[in-house]
């Protein structure tokens, strides 16, 4: 069996932060079957800033019992047709923002989607795992420490 020292191990669930959106202490589900990562968002509204496409939205964070709304803005990367595991296709907005997991911080693309029926508000897909040089041990949960990015250092939105 080969091992790779440069890869970090994570579990099926991990604590993450999205510093570019001002979000800390968010539980994420790791989904190696999903290509793109996804964030629960509603009230998605495209707009222009300095001639560039942006999107504003409400990110819904926390659990079903303690849901909190967080207004965000981020540059719009693209619109993408996404096919869910049950075969349903949906056109989604795609943003790129920083993801902090353990002691790592890197840029990840997220589709904005309604995940209100899902237990986890954030899904981390296989592209993010590859770029973060992470491997998943499906028998583990919350392997990494919570990211050390205090929420008070984040901007209020993804705006520059």
TrEMBL record:
Q: Where is the Retropepsin-like aspartic endopeptidase domain?
A: 9-147
Q: Which organism is it from?
A: Pseudomonas cremoricolorata
Cited InterPro entries: Asp_endopeptidase, Peptidase_aspartic_dom_sf
State the protein's name.
Ribosomal protein S6 modification protein
Q: Which domain of life is it from?
A: Bacteria
